[in-house]
Amino acid sequence: MTFTLASRHVVLEVSSTPTVEEGWLVVEGSRIASAGRGPVPDDAPRVIDLGDRLIAPALVNAHTHCALSMLRGGLGGAAAGNVVEDLFYRIERQLRPEDVRALARMGAWESLLSGVGLVWDHYFFGEALAAGLADTGIAAVVAPTIQDVGGPSLDAEGRDRSDRELAATETIALSGMPRVFAAVGPHATDTVSPALWRRAADLAERLGLPLHAHLAQSVEEVQRARERHDTTPFGLLEREGVLERVRGVFAHALFVDDAELSRLGPGHALVACPYSQLVFGFPARVDRWEASGARWVVATDCAASNDSMALRKELRFLAGLRTVGASFTSAYDAFLRGQGDAESVAATRREAYAAFEATATPAELYTRITSVPGALHPHVRAGVLAPGAIASVVVYDLDHPSFWPATDPIAGLVMGDVDAAIHAMWVAGRAVGERGDFHRSIVRSETYRAHRAEAKARLSELRARAGL
Ligand SMILES: [Zn+2]
Fold first, then answer.
1. Are residues 271 and 333 in the same domain?
2. What pLDDT does 453 receive?
3. Has residue 378 been placed in a domain?
């Protein structure tokens, strides 16, 4: 189907900076055929004039585990121990493919409802995962999780599913589905052997796919790399030639030092997941990433460690890093005790502010959930309204109070709670929900209600099998 969307407020990127101006775009099948500024051309096909509403690219969430929304709220906002190993693995050992298909849909629906059009999802039973995400209409880069050292995908005899997950990766990559793409998904450096990392890199190289992995996400992972490999997690990937051969999208990277960052290379990207990292205890130092010149993006990780798939609130956290450190300094403590003057504590705050300033402007932050992650996969361009990009578009009602006074719509898209202002959405050229009744039309639909009923039944059986 071919149609044109037009409005007096369209988010277009002019030399990598988002701007809002009158414009239009022609959607042909799953892609944007053309786009431009100014009034809609006379010969534009089937024009949908959205008037004063805001047309923006759908958001890109570069690191998710949609099925893990099943464990939302279990952590009470923070965790004392290693939650991945203590809680997640216990239930994941009992997973079956049909569970993954049913459970992944719930995280996908939540994402769609907040304007996310593309998720980079990493999970077990890759083909079931791809099917579950596709059932909802969301677009996805699916990385079937591979592990062979530890983790829940090993059975009681220690056999792993890596062969099947690597085969699934190839199947997804070659399937030609318009909304589903593949990445190769090693889990982490402490759950994947050097030999399996090399096999993952072989497959990625052969199919021209990126790697999507966790990297240096816990103190345990660093300790294990030291003990088993006499190096760091980053050092291991370097030594195995992985970083040299293929492009990687690496989630967390909490324990990658400045020298390693300087050797990362422009083909790779690091993913900050601020609220999830609060639970793990070590928010990523995006100031250091930025200073090193690394390419980096922002994602949610899963609702099990975040309680929410709302991507834009992550940006608010990053903006707040400019000042949060000041309350934890010795200058602050001294000032409280009546020692030190206001100027010395203010100077500490200025220092923290300056360190994070480059990462925190709304326009800069906006690109971390749109155009920058949208450029990470060679087979799909997303997060921009430009010819050739996937036609994933969100229309917002600028008259909604969450945008008031709507003088800077980009700041609203970054710092505001504007999900409720979503008027309409298309993913890969296909409408999601009904125009003008976006949220209600989805949650009241037969499809959503059937998906939720199946997920609920499967989750209760799964919890029973796990003894929870
Ligand atoms: Zn993760």
1. no
2. 98
3. no
